[in-house]
Amino acid sequence: MKNLKLIGTLCIIGTTICYGLVPALSFMAYETGVVTETLLFDKFLYAAILMWAYILIRRIPFKLNKAAAKTMAAVMFSYIGIATTLYLSFDYISGSLATIISFTFPAMVLAVEMIRGREAVRAKKIIAVALSLAGLCLIVWAPGMEVKIIGVVFALACAGCYTVYTISLSSENLKDMNSLVTAGYVLLASAVFNFFRCLISGQPLFTTGGEQLKFMILLAVVCAFAAILLFCLGVKLIGASNASIINTFEPVCACIFGYLLVGDLITTGMIIGGGLVVLAVLLANLPERKTLN
Question: Is residue 157 assigned to a domain?
Fold first, then answer.
């Protein structure tokens, strides 16, 4: 049992590292001349091929009923929004900053669920939302750091899309759906969307040269396929709640990799604000105390 918990924990840590690499690897790909539209199409296409090969080889059921198909459409569109707005934010602010801001989405989910009456209004959850907002303010208005507001807006839009994505995933219509199948549909939809985006913008569908291809494979295999697979395995072994808590350190990983690999600027305001965002997510995910009758 202890070994299984350790393996599950390591899987989620692996997921956090994989996702944390996304901004740095994307900026490194940009330096080789890859444009956003091509990057996203290649990343999602290669990842979708790997995911569907895994689904078919393992013979995982993937058919959707009408109710599940409608909810899956919301999941797919919101995920497309996540990727699109996040990469648009990269045009104006650093990957580390964009990741931290986008990670305010757990507070948004909490706020929406409390308004809808699906979450009990408790002090710790209100505090979590307040901490997340305070952290966001410290990050954006950090002294000595020039932040383009449009980049912040795109990062916040990414958080908004994450909110819709998370709420849609928790729908009863998808409760019996294997999470890898959900990921397969999401990756395929993202690849199709960015295929048409390349055609409309006139950008090439595929990269040129080994250096560009290297980053596309890393983003697809490590940051998409492996990250999703490790997360699913980890959740099965340690549960969704524990996995969510560990996964809150994704912005920390993004900052570390951004600093080490692409020289992202990390200010005191970002460190304190990012710490408050992580603390808010941890607080929101803490299990409720059981009361004795």
Answer: yes
For residue 91, give the H/E element and its range.
none
Q: How confident is the model at residue 289 (pLDDT cuts 50, 70, 90)?
A: low
Alpha carbons within 13 A on the beta-carbon side of 20: 22
One-letter amino acid identity for 80? I
Round to whole Å and give the CA distance between 175 and 172: 5
- How many domains in the chain? 1
221 CA to centre of own chain: 15
- Look at the block and give the residue holding tokens 């395995």: 233
Better-predicted residue by pLDDT, 139 or 14: 14
Amino acid identity, position 199: L
Is 170 strand, coil or helix? coil
Kindly state whether residue 176 falls inside one of the protein's structural domains.
yes
**CA-based nearest residue to 57, from 161, 188, 193, 184:** 184
Q: For 279-282, which contacts have Cβ atoms below 8 Å and span 24 or more sequence positions? A: 279/131, 279/135, 280/106, 280/107, 280/127, 280/128, 280/129, 280/130, 280/131, 280/132, 280/135, 281/103, 281/106, 281/107, 281/128, 281/132, 281/244, 281/245, 281/248, 282/245, 282/248
* pLDDT tens sequence across 150-181: 998 999 999 899 888 888 887 888 878 888 89
In a domain, 259, yes or no: yes
Q: What is the pTM of this model?
A: 0.83
Is the separation of the CB atoms in 78 and 161 below 8 Å?
yes
Q: Which structural domain range is residue 55 located in?
A: 2-285
